Protein: Transcription factor A, mitochondrial
Amino acid sequence: ISSSNVCSALRMFSLERGSVTPPKRPMSAYLRYVVEQHRVLLRQAPDLKIVEKTKKIAQAWRHLTPEQKQPYEIAANEGKLKYKEEVATFKANHTPTELAIFKEEKRKKLTRRRIMRQKRKLTMLGKPKRSRTAFNIFMSEHFDEAKGSTVQAKLKNLQDEWHRLPESQKKMYTQLAEDDKIRYQNEIKSWEEQMIEAGHEDLVRMKQKGRTSAKRAVSKVIPTKAKTSKPSTTSNPAKSVKSKKKAEE
Structure:
């Protein structure tokens, strides 16, 4: 199934069969406790940050006795049984083709979430912004004054202006783009070295990873002195016997 047809297929199925959302997985006992306590803390301490709330709830959960955790675990087990029934009903009401489309859509959603989490992580770690092209610099300078009531119209007019721009004026933006490229190369190199030192090698480009691993491999190799073979001082018995015979002759 082509991934480009997933969204249109899902819309078609939703019109024909109503809701086509697959059953959601049930919450665990701990998550049920988190939701409950989050509402309590929202009333008691509305100014408390989400990170502090999460830490406080996690600590409280660890100190609960098995008897205190039991209601949440019972609710979680009931949710699992209900989820299994809903999944069986959902599969029975859809064809294998539809189920394959739902699976592909789920995979795409998870991929988008991973990409968004990665972008947020890179932003938090201060990854340098990529270098801009000559046209991007020109567009950022003239976007506000560009003609057009919509973004698309402004972009089209700016593209037309860029094509009509004399080469002598384009050179200025080309030089700015080259300077920005050098800026990015220097900043990304320094940032990647910091990430490697901090243990975030997964965020480093493959070329930089290769150079780093090669350096580490070289540093681990301990040079060993080659053993020089000394000339043997012991004489060969066979040769000595032959020399004696020649001497006697």
DSSP finds ten helices and no strands in the chain.
